[in-house]
What we know:
The protein is of the alpha/beta class. It has helices spanning about 20-35, 75-90, and strands at about 5-10, 40-45, 60-70, 100-110.
Amino acid sequence: MPQITVDYSERLADGFDRPGFAKALHTAVVDIAAAKPPACKTQFRRTEDTTVGPDTEGHAVVHVHIGLLAGRTDETKARLTEAVLDLLRQYVKPGEGLALHASAEVRDLDPSYRKFDA
């Protein structure tokens, strides 16, 4: 915990500083949600196709999912979500003529969540 997944359009590959974003995001999660630094894990998933409305061209999407153990207030989750959006503004630079659609979600992990480290 936390479990972080970032889905992003392939069109952003060169304009998205993923390592820089992950480091800054982990700092924000520690500062805002009281996570422990070694527990922060981020996976990036590049998607090949993006369609927005009727358009298959000219758009790029980034969506950040953050799963936390239960116990954070709605205010804390909202602060973290806003911090994520601010970081995306810093670390994602879409190419000319490309509309960026960025979003984030912070949710509680299901009580069935378990993990192990090997």
